[in-house]
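Project standup — Tuesday

K.O.: blocked on the structure for the chain from last sprint. Re-posting the sequence here as requested.
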Amino acid sequence: MLVRRSFAAFVALVLLAPAVRAADEPFPIKVALVAGVGTAYDLLGAHVELRVSHVALFAGTGAMAFVPALFVGPTGSGAYSPHFGGCGGIRYYGGEGDGFFGSLNLTYGTFEGHYDPTVQQSQAVSGSLLTGTGTLGWRWRSNHLLYELGLGLGMYRKDSPPAGYTGMPPPGVGNTLSTGLIPDASFAVGLEF
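H.V.: unblocked you, prediction finished:
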C-alpha cells in the first residue's frame, strides 16, 4: 500500500512539473521518470529523478522486496511475502543530465512470513535485504527521451529469519545477519521534462 502511494506521488510529480513552469522562463529543476534494471531501479522498477544542472536525486520502487522473499527463505522455498521495496540515491552527470555519470544507490526490501512456512499459525518472522552500490556509466539523451548503461559494485546486508517445522524457533534463536559483495548494472530508458 505504501509502495503504491509513493509511486503515485512520483508519477504526479512527473506529470505536474511541466505545467508548473512559466512559459517564458526556464525551469531549473528537471524531472525524469526512468524505468530500468539495477539497484538504482530497485532491481527491476522505476524511479523519479530530480536534477539541477549536473546533480540529481532519485527515489523509486520495484522488485527488490521480492528477492529476499524468494531466496532468503528456507532453502529458497519462497515461503515469505514481500512487504516493502524501495530505492534512492544521488548522481553526478558530466553533462546536463547526459554523458558520463557516477551514481550512489541504496535499495531496501523487507519481507514477512511464518517460522514454519507450512503452518500459518506459527510464529511470525521477518527479514530484510539492504544494498549500497556505486555505478559508473553513460546516459544518452534525444530531446526528452533518455537511455543509460552502467556497471558497478557494492555491498549487501541480509537479515534472514530463522525457519523450521516446529511452530516456533527454540529459545535464543533469532535472525542471521550476513554481508558480502554484490555486482550492479544500470540499463534504463526514460523521459525527462
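K.O.: great, moving the ticket to review. The beta strands are 30-38, 43-52, 55-62, 81-93, 99-114, 124-142, 145-160, 176-192. Confidence is low (pLDDT under 50) at residues 19-24, 74-78.
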